[in-house]
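Quick one: co-fold with NAP.
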Amino acid sequence: MANPISIPAQEVHKTPAFGLAATDSSGIVSPFHFSRRANGDHDITLKILYCGICHGDVHFLRNEMGHTTYPMVAGHEIVGEVIKVGRSVTKFKIGDIVGVGPICGSCRSCSNCSQGWESYCPEKIFTYSGYDYDGSRTQGGYSDKTVVDEHFAIKIPQGMPLDSAAPLLCAGITVYSPMKFHGLCQPGQHLGVVGLGGLGHVAVKFAKALEMKVTVISTSPGKKKEALERLGADVFLLSNDPQQLQEGKDTLDGIIDTVAGPHSLEPLADLLKTGGKLIIVGALFPPPELPIRPMMMGRRMIAGSAAGGMGETQEMIDLAAKHNITADIEVIPMDYVNTALDRVAKNDVKYRFVIDVANTIHKVSPDS
Ligand code: NAP
Ligand code: ZN
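Sure, here it is.
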């Protein structure tokens, strides 16, 4: 018998969703109805409660890396409530509060996946701007609900504030994973954090919780006071002041570079001790010149890092809960997202916007 409301057969079990999508490289988002894949046996469906705005969202929405396809819903710092579980789901039940970050799928069998490095799986699926298991485009968390394999959701620890926890799903794991992988997490070590934004301020918080010494390297003199007094950094260097950089020479065991734009690496490499590591997590395009001299003369290393695996994401958020680490946020309604994206692009946020999706999505819904 024909479906009474004439939905094509392959669409019947899909999950209808609504959000804010950009349709071109202006990056301006507007209301968008779409469908997500059906909730499979291993999947959970989330009612999205909060979603952080990462600078990566701006890069993608505005096609700054040249491979965005539209329409595109951004958002990969998602906290939601489980409203549906597939019959094989074991980790979650209806009503649980969970988080989803930048990766929502991978092959689960390659050498990277086997080591818990899902974000390096050649078949990883990005939470937005990727292709889902059913071939549809993945769309992010500026939307009412999402469907995800339970493996790619993590438990939000009891008692954690849900809005300020959301940025940990990307900003938190992106700085925590390389700190751990490169051994830059020992008490007494000296970590440099370049760029005091969404990622950077969380890196300072993790490093201080791990009893490290922290130097913030920033372009913004206005951030000095709170970096030192509120976030607990030990040293603040203005990256455009050669005198200050000279004073910081050869002092750091490692650097997490979170800058969201082109900049020179040579003055940063000079801040490292012999054998120190400069870890780049910011999206650097066009790619900068390699600082061969300070690398060679100081046996220093430059590395990159992309988000993190699911096991270490759970470990990161459990550690954050233990040390009361969340992001410093400005909570915004859905109808403020375009303004917020502009402000992120202009480095005008301290330090993360988080969209109150569930309580404000009606403000952008043409049906409400
Ligand atoms: P954000 O909140 O905008 O912070 C970036 C900070 O970089 C700014 O606060 C600013 O700090 C500094 N900055 C200096 N020069 C800049 C410039 N020309 N343009 C922009 N920022 C500049 O961004 P975020 O959300 O922390 O993300 C940082 C970067 O990491 C982005 O490129 C993002 O795409 C990337 N990212 C990568 C991963 C990954 O897996 N590797 C994951 C998430 C994000 P000061 O004012 O202190 O100088
Ligand atoms: Zn991100």
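If it helps, The pocket of zinc ion (ligand 2) is lined by residues 54, 56, 76, 102, 170 (CB under 6 Å).
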